[in-house]
Amino acid sequence: MTRPVPVKDRTTGRAVASGGLTRAQVVGRLAAFVGLSAVALVVVPVLVYPFLQFANGITGMRLAWYGVMACAAMLVATAVALRFFGESWSAATRFGIDAIGAWPVVGGIAAGWFAIAVPAGLLIWLGALHVVPAEPGSWEQGALLALAILAPAALTEELALRGYAFTLLRRGWGTAVAVGVTSVLFGLLHLFNAGVTAQSVVMVALAGVFLSLVRLAFDSLWAAWLAHLAYNFVQVAVFHTAVSGIAVPQPNYHTVSAGPPWLTGGEWGPEAGAIAAVGMLGVSFLLAIHAGWVQVHRRGWRLDINWRPSGRGEQ
């Protein structure tokens, strides 16, 4: 696997990362982005809470509004950081108009959907997950509630980890480091969720690797966000399980673990089970083919591995 090798500035003698930045400058921008994000996560909710409180009185969707506030905070923090450093929104985040299209949208949704739907369906077929009755209600309303909660939450996490921060890490230390660091942080961010275990943190970190591959394969944060959303939505709105240890009320039926937690994920949800790794690895292989990292020749199963750390033309 190749990665960008920093060169030395002829004047200062310091290592220069991709994009003409020194590693010290990359670290400085990362620190500024983290600081702005922390401030925005405090300030933005204070400013918009009165409006959301009014909206909550009408819709009754308090939990969903908390996610909207966090998402708005990350959007503001990213915009301010990019404005301050004179960076292009689209190039730095891959969340611009040029990064959205049929392939990123359909591919992202399909990647997230099949990565968890196939393993969970297999567990039901094997009897390791059981579908049991629940309080009757409207499936559509339950699905819309799940979407309202999950969509901003997924975008918040993608902007925080696989947006500008991901781009900066790639510039300074290459793709492998960017994927590794953001994925470990993704796992650690879930340490305080209900029912957390060592395996659940590892599996969330693996999901971080998977989502990074989605971003790289389609060169689009839209794809990573939609894959993230689809991955969680399938668990909550289709199978009616918890996601990352958080249960969103759903009507008519629930899917409960009837097998060993290491396989099914237990109370955390199917994403924490070992079977989820199979789904993510399988879809990742298809993503690698789509991106051109792996070529499968017709003569047998000979694999020609061609790693392209910059994805589809990303700088």
Structure characterization notes:
With 315 residues, this protein is mainly alpha-helical. It has a domain at 90-305. 63% of the residues lie in helices and 6% in strands. It has helices spanning 23-59, 62-85, 89-93, 102-126, 139-161, 164-173, 175-188, 198-218, 221-238, 261-264, 274-291; strands spanning 7-8, 15-16, 129-133, 253-257, 294-296, 303-305. Strands 1-2 form a two-stranded antiparallel sheet. Strands 3-4 form a two-stranded antiparallel sheet. 42% of the residues are buried.
| Measured distance between first and last alpha carbons | 17 Å
Number of helices: 11
Mean pLDDT: 86
Low-pLDDT segments, ≥5 res: 1-16
Question: What is the helix fraction of residues, given as a range?
Answer: 55-70%
Strand content: 5-15%
Keywords:
single chain; 315 residues; mainly alpha; two-stranded antiparallel sheet; two-stranded antiparallel ribbon; 11 helices; 6 strands; 63% helix
Short description:
With 315 residues, this protein is mainly alpha-helical.
Present the secondary structure layout.
Blueprint: E1 7-8, E2 15-16, H1 23-59, H2 62-85, H3 89-93, H4 102-126, E3 129-133, H5 139-161, H6 164-173, H7 175-188, H8 198-218, H9 221-238, E4 253-257, H10 261-264, H11 274-291, E5 294-296, E6 303-305
Antiparallel strand pairs: 1-2, 3-4, 5-6
Helix pairs in contact: 1-2, 1-6, 2-5, 4-9, 4-11, 5-9, 6-7, 7-8, 8-9, 8-11
